[in-house]
């Protein structure tokens, strides 16, 4: 027998449990242990303090959700199916660092927390819930976000300027260059467009990391909404020689198809961003001769939107990462197709901010389907919300009518100064180039003649 091997004695085990108790009592993270039905059988002092539960005795034997009440990070109520903590507790699956907002007792106070659940795999099916206050982490992330946001905003402007000059240099009406220079400038133009898109995506990402931005929910008929947004892609698809089909239909039998009316409560700008990214990607990753199908349908209490393409597809390895920030599948196809790896990350955040889910099904070389599922409204709920919207609009109209009219006419306001205004081209600037520059500046800065 080894000299170093010790036989465990009862005294050792007692020591261990005393030490474990001291450790659990002294840490700042909340720890709750429950049985497999979610009934609390242990809590540490930090958990009592964070949830403002008074004493240990008060919570022992209670169901965990009476002590640990959560909202989404944006302050939205979480239904049972949307609440990852409830799901993990029910199924016995682990949960890793879900970020939510902890409702402190019966007060208005909220603490941002990261919650984990670890099943113990013992006979009783105990589950251990740990949660920690992430106020400081969020503050630091907020500072980082602010920095990236300012930097990308500042860098977008000179990039648009570079892009503008390259466009002018490539335009035979504004510059004379030889074929070699055209080749160099075309490559430079491609790179500067990529950079411009990267800064724009970074800016969008930081806007979305900023938790002060909340969705502006409005009732909407979803089939019409999705159709009107994706109709913008018909011309682009035609140009790329790709078939584009929008179908919001439910097969009643083989011959009849019934238009479905599906109501939702969504942010219109978020919907546009989501569909722009999904349909934009479908176009980008589908070669000539391929097809894209967009569909919207009601599925119980959810709305299901799918964007399907017959394009290059995504391998199983990549599929689990594509919604991460900056992730791009690396293969011979994607290497030649420009991208930033931010579009799907932004899309996922937008979908989740509206209480939805996004996922993809694909196989390499066999096309892809992206699904977005959003909460659905019944016809009655839609009507009620529409009435509320109309009332709000009426109140706003009345408030505007009662406001004193401005004494200064609008035309005397100072014009917005452009950032990019090459004097020598002002008279000859073709409209096309102007539009291009305005687009690059994202419409925020107008060209002034
Ligand atoms: P990107 O700017 O690179 O397109 P996204 O975040 O939109 O960034 O997409 C991440 C990655 O997912 C892409 O780089 C690509 O590899 C893959 N991807 C997204 N959509 C599709 C699609 N419809 N078909 C094939 N691959 C796709």
Uncertain regions: pLDDT < 50 for 5+ in a row?
Answer: 249-258, 408-449
Q: pLDDT average, as an integer? A: 82
| Strand composition percent | 15-25%
Q: Provide the helix percentage.
A: 40-55%
Question: What's the order of the H and E elements?
Answer: HEEHHHEHEEEHHEHHEEEEHEEHHHEEHH
Radius of gyration, in Å, reads: 28 Å
Coarse structural class: alpha+beta
Give the N-to-C terminal Cα separation: 93 Å
From the spread of the alpha carbons, the general shape counts as globular
Total of DSSP H or I helical runs spanning 4+ residues: 15
Bound molecules: adenosine-5'-diphosphate
The beta-strand count equals 15
Structure description:
- This protein has 449 residues and is of the alpha+beta class.
- Helices cover 43% and strands 20% of the residues.
- The chain is built from 15 helices and 15 strands.
- Strands 7, 8, 11, 12, 13, 14 and 15 form a seven-stranded mixed β-sheet that branches. The chain has a six-stranded antiparallel β-sheet with strand order 2-1-6-5-4-3.
- Strand 14 and strand 15 form a beta hairpin.
- Helix 6 runs antiparallel to helix 7.
- The longest helix has 36 residues, at 135-170.
- It is globular.
- The termini are far apart.
- The structure holds adenosine-5'-diphosphate.
- Adenosine-5'-diphosphate is lined by residues 277, 281-282, 285, 309, 311-314, 322, 327-329, 334, 339-345, 368.
- The site of adenosine-5'-diphosphate (ADP) has 22 residues, from helix 10 and helix 13.
């Amino acid at each position: 027998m080894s000299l170093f091997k010790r036989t465990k004695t009862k005294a050792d085990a007692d020591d261990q449990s005393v030490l474990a108790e001291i450790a659990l009592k002294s840490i700042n993270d909340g720890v709750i242990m429950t049985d497999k039905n979610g009934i609390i059988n242990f809590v540490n002092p930090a958990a009592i303090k964070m949830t403002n539960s008074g004493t240990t005795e008060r919570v022992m034997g209670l169901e965990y959700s009476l002590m640990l009440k959560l909202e989404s990070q944006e302050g939205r109520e979480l239904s049972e199916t949307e609440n990852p903590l409830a799901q993990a507790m029910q199924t016995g699956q682990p949960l890793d660092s879900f970020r939510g907002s902890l409702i402190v007792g019966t007060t208005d106070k909220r603490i941002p927390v990261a919650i984990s659940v670890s099943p113990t795999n013992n006979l009783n099916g105990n589950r251990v819930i740990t949660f920690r206050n992430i106020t400081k982490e969020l503050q630091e992330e907020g500072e980082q976000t602010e920095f990236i946001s300012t930097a990308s905003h500042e860098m977008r402007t000179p990039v648009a300027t570079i892009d503008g000059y390259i466009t002018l240099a490539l335009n035979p009406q504004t510059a004379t260059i030889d074929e070699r220079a055209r080749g160099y400038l075309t490559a430079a133009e491609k790179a500067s467009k990529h950079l411009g898109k990267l800064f724009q995506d970074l800016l969008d990402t930081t806007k979305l990391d900023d938790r002060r931005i909340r969705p502006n929910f409005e009732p909407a008929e979803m089939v019409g909404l999705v159709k009107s947004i994706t109709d913008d892609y018909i011309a682009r698809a035609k140009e790329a020689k790709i078939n584009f089909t929008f179908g919001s239909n439910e097969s009643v039998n083989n011959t009849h198809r019934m238009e479905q009316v599906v109501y939702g409560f969504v942010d219109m700008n978020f919907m546009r961003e989501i569909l722009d990214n999904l349909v934009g990607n479908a176009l980008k990753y589908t070669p000539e001769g391929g097809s894209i199908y967009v569909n919207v349908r009601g599925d119980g209490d959810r709305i299901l939107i799918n964007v399907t393409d017959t394009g290059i597809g995504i391998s199983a390895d990549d599929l689990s990462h594509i919604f991460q920030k900056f992730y791009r599948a690396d293969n011979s196809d994607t290497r030649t197709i420009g991208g930033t790896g931010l579009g799907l990350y932004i899309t996922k955040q937008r979908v989740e901010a509206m209480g939805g889910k996004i996922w993809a099904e694909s196989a390499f070389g066999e096309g892809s389907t992206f699904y977005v599922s959003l909460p659905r409204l019944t016809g009655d709920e839609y009507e009620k919300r529409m009435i509320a919207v109309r009332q709000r609009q009426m109140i706003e109209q009345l408030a505007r009518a009662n406001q004193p009219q401005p004494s200064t006419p609008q035309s005397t306001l100072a014009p917005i100064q452009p950032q990019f205004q090459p004097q020598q081209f002002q008279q000859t600037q073709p409209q096309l180039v102007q539009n291009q520059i305005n687009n690059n500046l994202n419409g925020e800065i107008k060209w002034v003649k």
